[in-house]
Amino acid sequence: MSDAYTRVPSVLTHRLPRPVPADELAACPVGEVFRRMGDKWSMLLVVLLGSGPHRYGELHRAVEGISQRMLTRTLRGLETDGLVWREVHPTTPPAVEYGLTPLGLTLLEPLSALADWAVRHEAEIGEARSRHGGTRTPR
Amino acid sequence: MSDAYTRVPSVLTHRLPRPVPADELAACPVGEVFRRMGDKWSMLLVVLLGSGPHRYGELHRAVEGISQRMLTRTLRGLETDGLVWREVHPTTPPAVEYGLTPLGLTLLEPLSALADWAVRHEAEIGEARSRHGGTRTPR
DNA sequence: CAGAATCCCCACAGATACTG
DNA sequence: CAGTATCTGTGGGGATTCTG
Fold it and tell me: Where in the numbering of this chain does the HTH hxlR-type domain appear (chains A, B) (predicted)?
């Protein structure tokens, strides 16, 4: 209320004419994508399926650490979003294949870009973390 | 164990010589990055800060929907990973600025690539979802 | 202004057991 | 083989209140 509130460094004056429409971003598909891929397994499965279709058991063994429940749920989620297809072969015993749809394949590219970034800057993140973890206990 | 288990379609024979080392991927930095960015707000804040440094209150208003708790926690997390810097100006009242570090700026690029993908394929995902939601109630 | 502290909730991960 | 069913725990995240 008083003029004390105006006593801020001039460098802080730097701001955008329009502070960026954040709600647009929040409601925008970008958030959706990260919500879908941000879980523990989705991205991993997309990358695995990027090498070609695979059967349920193959994926289960390949990921190794994922529960059947999570494997099924994650694949179903990806299928719902049209990123993965699912085909049941009525054999005995049943065989089910999963693979990337054309849409899923297009996702593979930007995903790889991010993966590359992660690999390239892994060390820097580690350093930064230990720096903060060493001087100040987080949490 | 019986030969009934061999009675699978020949198309399923298609598999990789080496089923892809998934544990490597699971333990690899890619997972870490997605864990950091995959939460509800991190990516959004990185994009916002991509337009330049901003103050706490600006961010709070810009995101609009985020609680103070989450804003602080998310910024701290990004700071810990060396993606965001934080500068306190000892004024009255205090003013705190947040901005992207050089490392954070490099992340902005692959992030944008993924964002572009999301925007471009938003409609397709929506269609796929309604397709599955219409014929088969998920969950 | 920029937070720290506290309480609470529920969505979702994980393990286990069972089935067509 | 490829799931479903069920239970349980963890913690992400929201609302509120208080403070330097």
Answer: 28-126
DSSP state of B3: G
- As a whole number of angstroms, the distance between CA B66 and CA B59 comes to 9
Tell me the C-alpha distance between B113 and B115, whole Å.
5
Contact A80 B133 (CB under 8 A): yes
Which residue is closest, via its CA, to the C1' of C5? B69
Could you say which of 3.90.226.10, 3.20.190.10, 1.20.1440.230, 1.10.10.10 is the CATH number of the domain covering A17-106? 1.10.10.10
Q: What is the pTM of this model?
A: 0.80
Q: What are A20-52's pLDDT values in tens digits?
A: 454 455 456 777 888 888 888 898 899 889 989
Quick check: B92 contacting A, CB < 8 Å? yes
Kindly state whether B57 is in contact with chain A, defined as any CB-CB distance less than 8 angstroms.
no
